[in-house]
Structure formats: structure tokens, C-alpha cells
């Protein structure tokens, strides 16, 4: 950043404060837009994986239906959450990992129940 020279101790004001601020805002908007594009790509990948997982859950549901087994398997859900928390490297917290997988289980169980 440019500064006015020798304007005393309290000096060190930008030559053009407004222009510097505007440049910062433009840079931030550029970064934000690039980050949102990255976020859009991740969202699309996650949607793809969500549907892939859902298709597997539906297949498991068909087997359970044929064998007259219950949809809900709490032990299996607890094991998945424990394993995912063990592998979790953050910044997502273990509590958030449990919440996220809990939502995935909910979706899987709804899809299985829809087909009973
Ligand atoms: C998919 C299953 O059905 C349910 C959903 C689970 C999941 O989404 O991972 C896990 C256990 C079950 O409560 C399963 O039994 O594996």
C-alpha cells in the first residue's frame, strides 16, 4: 500500500484511501466468485455421490424386504459414525460428522420405506 512520506508519527495514511479500499473490495469479490465456483463443483460431486449412495441403499432395502428384515439397523449406524469420526481430519467436528451421517441415514431409510 502507498503511504504519504514523512507526515509524522501519526501519518502513514494511504495516498488514496478510497481507491485502496475499492481495490480490496474488488479483489474480495473476485475471490468470492472463484470460491463459489469451486463450491458449485463440490455441490455437484456431492449430489452425484448422494444418489450413488441412495441407489445402494435401495438395493439393500430390497434384500431386507425379501428377507423380512427391519429397515433400521441402529448398530450399523453407530458403527458407521464411529468409523467416520475416527477418520475425520476436520475442520468439520465429530458432532457435525454424526449430524451429517444421521441425515444420510434418514434419506436411505425413507427411500427403503417408500418401497415397502
Ligand atoms: C442402508 C441400510 O439401512 C439403514 C441405513 C443405513 C445407512 O444409510 O447407512 C444404515 C443402516 C440402516 O439403518 C443398511 O442396513 O445398511
UniProtKB/TrEMBL annotation:
This protein's source sits in the domain of life called Bacteria
Identify the keywords attached in UniProt to this record, alphabetized.
Isomerase
Report the Gene3D superfamilies cross-referenced here. Answer: Chorismate mutase
Which portions of the chain have biased composition (kind: Basic and acidic residues)? 1-15
Every copy of the Chorismate mutase domain together lies at 26-116
Instruction: Show the segment(s) annotated as Disordered.
Output: 1-23
Q: Does the keyword Isomerase apply?
A: yes
The record ties this protein, via PROSITE patterns, to:
CHORISMATE_MUT_2
Supply one GO BP term.
Answer: salicylic acid biosynthetic process
Q: Name one GO molecular function term.
A: chorismate mutase activity
InterPro entries cross-referenced by the UniProt entry = Chorismate_II_sf, Chorismate_mutase-related, CM_dom_sf, CM_II_prokaryot
> Which named protein is this?
Chorismate mutase
The source organism is: Laceyella tengchongensis
For this protein's source organism, the top of the classification is: Bacteria, Bacillati, Bacillota, Bacilli, Bacillales
Amino acid at each position: 500500500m502507498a503511504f504519504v512520506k514523512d507526515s509524522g508519527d501519526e501519518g502513514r495514511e494511504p495516498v488514496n484511501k478510497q481507491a485502496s479500499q475499492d481495490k480490496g473490495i474488488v479483489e474480495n469479490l473476485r475471490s468470492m466468485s472463484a470460491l463459489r465456483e469451486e463450491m458449485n463443483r463440490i455441490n455437484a460431486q456431492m449430489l452425484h455421490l448422494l444418489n450413488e449412495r441412495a441407489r445402494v441403499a435401495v438395493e439393500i432395502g430390497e434384500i431386507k424386504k425379501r428377507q423380512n428384515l427391519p429397515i433400521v439397523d441402529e448398530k450399523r449406524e453407530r458403527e458407521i459414525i464411529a468409523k467416520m469420526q475416527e477418520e475425520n481430519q476436520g475442520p468439520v467436528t465429530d458432532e457435525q460428522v454424526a449430524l451429517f451421517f444421521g441425515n444420510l441415514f434418514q434419506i436411505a431409510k425413507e427411500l427403503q420405506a417408500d418401497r415397502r
